[in-house]
Each structure stands twice: as structure tokens, then as C-alpha cells.
TrEMBL record:
Superkingdom, taxonomy of origin: Eukaryota
InterPro entries: Cyt_P450, Cyt_P450_CS, Cyt_P450_E_grp-I, Cyt_P450_sf, Cytochrome_P450_monoxygenase
Name the UniProt record assigns to this protein: Cytochrome P450
PROSITE patterns tied to this protein: CYTOCHROME_P450
Keyword annotations: Heme, Iron, Metal-binding, Monooxygenase, Oxidoreductase
Family: Belongs to the cytochrome P450 family.
Organism of provenance: Phycomyces blakesleeanus
Cofactor(s) of this protein: heme
SUPFAM superfamilies reported for this sequence: Cytochrome P450
Length: 517
């Protein structure tokens, strides 16, 4: 029996009533009957989709057969869905149904097929994240548009350019070291250790680096504890997670114009104005690429400065949140594993710091086996893409030759779950950087490892991010003794996904003291 036959059976009572209406029936009665007909049609469609449709055999929570599970009405409830999906995959398997027309996958063959081989289009969630009519390279769904934009921005992420901004990374990292020393002195009391919120400082550092390297303007957030931009960024991420689960709210916010009235947007607007109007010098960076591109498109028309500013906001968010959170998780994992921290410190101590400086050159760090292993393992175990990578099937497909996916199905690539599967990674929940070293007994499952996505939509800033994380971690390990705070270690277990993986508190404090020469 096909779909049409089932719908006709379910709707038969309604059409029978319509055909037997008394002649004196009023217009109001017709209206009521029409409403009943629509309700029955909607219900029958839901029932068919849940129990007879192409996805009906895929396991998952019962409620998700009928409704896409929202995060919750209150902001305090957001961030839990991505963690809940880990439990769902553990319970139901590598392919689960999480909505009437939505599935989540953690099978490595399927992930490669979706992200690389078939290179499916980004899903509708990215439309929610866009500013209306002003999509960016990160949230654009059209593959041609993305390809053209990626080609345009590639010079700003080339090896040559990343090498050229090394002084900026080192300078910003040295300023952070000065801030750490100041915090130690201010909080150490009678002991030698002081308390430092490294999670917050890493976020500030990432903001300052992307601001200076990409837009020619250091935000100076590291030295300003009351700077509005870090808090603005946190609210943006929390709010974005909420909007993704409640798209109708996004429309209301967009119509009100509130999305652009934030300290970050205001600050970026001023930076763009200064460059466009010649108050700051031209330099070859992300901002200049945006301006030149707009000029090429507009011809003699005035530049849409607000459009450029909105695009810069997306670059700032993507370029700071992911990097800082990964660095924070690396320090958390090292605090949980003293032996791992000692091994990393031994490797870093074998390198000589430049005379009178607190940071290394990237040539000294980029090939350190254990430092890179620590980063790889952090990116595996604490994968920032907590919410998954959403794609949509633009035609009928069969995943791994076993799961039929009809056109229009939303496919969530659950990278975090794939990174934690026991059949891919021995002791999957253990932090073991050794698994990335050549002599380890089990080779890493690289085909199940996608920390920067894969395929045409992989992260353009991968090398940029890795360099920044190496600089930061090496500076901390080289210059400070670290003492974990038990309460903070316990609180760090409470993780959530505000689009990116983070600690619920948005803070992680440790005790530090300068190491003796």
C-alpha cells in the first residue's frame, strides 16, 4: 500500500462528511469542517511519516518520530541536546532518527560519503544563522557561492600570510603572560600560587589575535577585565543555540534589527568605517579582502559598510570561539592527567626560549610530536563541533549501501560521537595523546576523525588555529607550574553545546606560579 492510499483511508471519514452535508449548512460549518480536514490531513501525514515513511525503521526516541526535539523554552535549558545525542547514539547505534525528516550519523563510512564523496549541501540550520540577505562563507548553503568566497579569502589563510602574522601571535601571547603574572600577584595571598581564569583569558587572547591579524585592530580584551566584547560573544553563542532550536524567534529578532545592535557589531562597524574612509592604512588582511570585493561588485555605488561589518562579526566569532575553547579543553585534560602534562613539559623544556622572551617561534613548535599529539587528542575527545555538521540530501541516496535517505532528509554528521566510538578508538573516553604517536600499538582511525570538518566545507583556518593553540599551550607549560583546583575540575565535567562545545560555567580557573629558571 502506497502513501496516497494510506492518506485516502485516513481522510475518508472527512470526505464522507463533506459529501453528506445538509443543504442548510452555514459558511461557519464549512469553515469548521475545513479546519477539521486540515487537522486530520496533518495528523495522518505525521502518522505516515512516523510509522510507514522511508525513515520509519531507523531507531531513535519515540517522540522524535513526530517532532524535531527542541532545546527547551528557557535559555537555561539550551546546550543539552548535543550531549543528549551522544547518549542516543550509544543506545540506538550509528544511525538514529532525531526528527520526522532528520537523522544523525556517526558511522565513518557514512560521514565520508556525506561530507566528501557526495559533498551534500549545508542544511537549513545555516539559514537561521545568517543575517538576512548577508550570508558569509561559514553559513552560506550554496556551494558555488561558498567556493567563490573561499577562493577569495584563501590568501588570508595561506602559509605565507600565517607566517607573516607570527609577531602578532607572539606579541598577544606575551601580553597574556603579563596579565597572568598580574593575576597571580593579585590573588596569591600567603602562598606562591595565584588563581587565574584561563578559559576567559584564552577567549580574550583569541579575540585579540583575530582582531589584530584579520582586521588591523587589537581589541585589547586581555588587559581589560570589563571589556564588553567577551561577554557579548558568550551571549551570541548562547543565543544562536537558542535560535537554531526556535527558528520562529529568529524571524522576530531579525525583523527588529536587534541582531546588529551589540558591542561586537558596533566595534566592528567602526573598524570598517576607519579602513574604508582612510583613517587606518590599507593592509592585506581579511578586512581588506572584504572591502575590495564589495568595491568590485558595487562599481561606483557607495559601499554597504553594514554588510561588511556583519561579515566581520562572523569571522571574529568563528576565529576565536573554536580556538579558545579547544585550548581550554587541552589545559583541562592536562590537569586531569599529570603524567601527560609532565611528558609534554619535558618535550617543551628541551627547546630554548629566545633570550628575554616568554613565547616560542612557530618553527620551534609546529613539528613537536607530543604537543601535536595533545592537540589532536583534545580535538578528538572534546570536539568543538558539538552540534554536528548539518547537511541535506538534495536527491535520494543510500548511505553505506544500507540506509535509504530520501531527498529532503536532513543529515546531522555527529562528529563528537564518531570521535568517541569504542569500535574506532580503544579506550575512547580516555585522554591518550600517545595514540597519535608513530609507535603506538593502535593506529588512529583517521577516517573517523573530522575535527575541522572534511570535504569542500572543511575549515579554512585550520593552520591558523593550530599555530595559535601551540603558541598558547607551550607558553603556559613552559612558564608556569600548574595546580588544579578540585572544585573547578569537578565543574569542568559539566559540558554543553552552544553550537560549539564548551564548559557550562564559561570559566575554568587554575592556580599558577612562575617557574624558576
Amino acid at each position: 500500500m502506497n502513501y496516497s492510499s494510506i492518506l485516502n483511508i485516513l481522510k475518508a471519514p472527512v470526505w464522507y462528511m463533506v459529501s453528506h452535508l445538509p443543504e442548510e449548512n452555514t459558511l461557519g460549518q464549512f469553515g469548521k469542517l475545513a479546519a477539521v480536514s486540515l487537522a486530520v490531513y496533518y495528523a495522518s501525514d505525521k502518522l505516515y511519516c512516523a510509522f510507514f515513511g522511508p525513515l520509519s525503521k531507523i531507531p531513535g526516541p519515540f517522540i522524535d518520530k513526530f517532532f524535531y526535539e527542541p532545546e527547551g523554552v528557557l535559555f537555561s535549558h539550551i546546550g543539552k541536546k548535543s550531549i543528549r545525542y551522544l547518549d542516543y547514539h550509544e543506545k540506538y547505534g550509528p544511525v538514529i532518527r532525531v526528527g520526522p525528516k532528520t537523522i544523525s550519523i556517526s558511522d565513518k563510512t557514512m560521514l565520508k560519503q556525506v561530507l566528501v564523496t557526495e559533498d551534500l549541501e549545508k542544511g537549513p540550520v545555516y539559514s537561521i544563522l545568517q543575517n538576512p540577505g548577508n550570508e558569509s562563507m561559514f553559513d552560506a548553503r550554496d556551494k558555488t557561492y561558498h567556493k567563490n568566497n573561499r577562493r577569495m579569502y584563501s590568501p588570508a589563510f595561506s602559509v605565507k600570510y600565517i607566517n607573516s602574522i607570527e609577531p602578532i601571535m607572539r606579541s598577544c601571547t606575551e601580553i597574556m603572560a603579563q596579565k597572568i603574572n598580574s593575576d597571580i600577584e593579585r590573588t596569591k595571598g600567603d602562598g606562591e600560587y595565584g588563581t587565574v581564569d584561563v578559559w576567559y583569558l584564552f577567549q580574550c587572547l583569541a579575540l585579540d589575535v583575530i582582531g589584530e591579524s584579520g582586521f588591523g585592530s587589537n581589541f585589547n580584551t586581555v588587559g581589560d577585565e570589563d571589556h564588553p566584547i567577551p561577554q557579548c560573544l558568550k551571549k551570541n553563542m548562547n543565543g544562536a543555540a537558542y535560535f537554531v532550536s526556535h527558528p520562529w524567534i529568529t524571524l522576530l529578532i531579525a525583523m527588529s534589527g536587534l541582531m546588529t545592535i551589540t558591542p561586537l557589531a558596533t566595534h566592528m562597524l567602526e573598524i570598517v568605517k576607519d579602513r574604508v574612509e582612510g583613517r587606518t592604512k590599507r593592509r592585506e588582511d581579511i578586512l581588506q579582502i572584504m572591502i575590495d570585493n564589495e568595491r568590485a561588485k558595487n562599481g561606483d555605488k557607495p559601499l554597504d559598510i553594514m554588510r561588511i561589518a556583519r561579515s566581520t562579526v562572523m569571522f571574529v566569532i568563528v576565529g576565536s570561539e573554536t580556538t579558545s575553547n579547544t585550548t581550554g579543553f587541552a589545559i583541562i585534560e592536562l590537569c586531569r592527567s599529570p603524567d601527560t602534562m609532565k611528558r609534554l613539559r619535558d618535550e617543551i623544556d628541551a627547546i630554548q626560549l629566545p633570550e628575554g622572551e616568554t613565547t616560542f617561534h612557530q618553527d620551534q613548535l609546529k613539528n613537536l610530536p607530543y604537543l601535536n599529539a595533545v592537540l589532536n587528542e583534545t580535538l578528538r575527545l572534546d570536539s568543538i563541533t558539538a552540534s554536528g555538521l548539518e547537511r541535506i540530501a538534495t536527491q535520494d541516496s543510500v548511505l553505506a549501501g544500507t540506509v535509504f535517505v530520501p531527498k529532503g532528509t536532513i543529515v546531522n554528521c555527529n562528529i563528537l560521537s564518531a570521535h568517541r566510538r569504542a569500535d574506532y578508538w580503544p579506550e575512547p573516553l580516555a585522554f591518550k595523546p600517545e595514540r597519535w604517536l608513530p609507535d603506538y600499538e593502535h593506529k588512529p582511525a583517521l577516517d573517523a576523525y573530522h575535527p575541522f570538518s572534511s570535504g569542500s566545507r572543511n575549515c579554512i583556518g585550520k593552520s591558523y588555529a593550530l599555530n595559535e593553540m601551540r603558541h598558547t599551550i607551550a607558553m603556559i607549560i613552559k612558564n608556569y607550574e600548574i595546580k588544579p583546583i578540585p572544585e573547578e575540575m569537578e565543574a569542568s565535567k559539566n559540558i554543553c553545546g552552544f553550537l560549539t562545545l564548551t564548559v557550562r560555567s564559561g570559566s575554568f580557573k587554575i592556580q599558577l606560579k612562575p617557574r624558576s629558571a
